[in-house]
Write a structure and sequence with these properties.
single chain, about 150 residues, mainly beta, Immunoglobulin-like, 2 domains, five-stranded mixed sheet, elongated, CSF2R factor, transmembrane, Short_hematopoietin_rcpt_2_CS, signal, cytokine receptor activity
Amino acid sequence: AGMNGTAIENFVCVIFNVSFMNCTWDVGRTATEDTQYFLYWRPSQKEDVTECQNYIKDNFGRHTGCRFQNVTIENKNAYFLVNGSRSGQNIQSYEEKILLISDYIIVEKLTPPLNVTVNCTEASHRCSIWWQPPRTSHVKKSSCFKYEIVIENK
């Protein structure tokens, strides 16, 4: 139901700082300035559907994203629904059911590695570097990470 081309496009969510998540989207191709979108989500089947409490808005005041706090990611399905209206008319809705840790619409920006320690010995001209894996919302195995070290001579 709803007018063609009014549904959102390019829905993507990014997790950062372990428990924050931003979901963003582009307005529909035929969306007018008075189109308004509303995001509802259910983080797991055990939880209730809730509406976004902190919308990201474009220059026309249209909702084009949502900021979430205290997000917990595990092996669970989440359900997203974006619907809305314009001039009292319904627009096409967008629905997505995803497995939070594997589907392509969820991206996690990792924190830097923790407790980086460098020990250099002048006699051998060698340095040893240790660190702990970054904090993450869901990765439990440190073997999942690959690191790159850039050494600059200053």
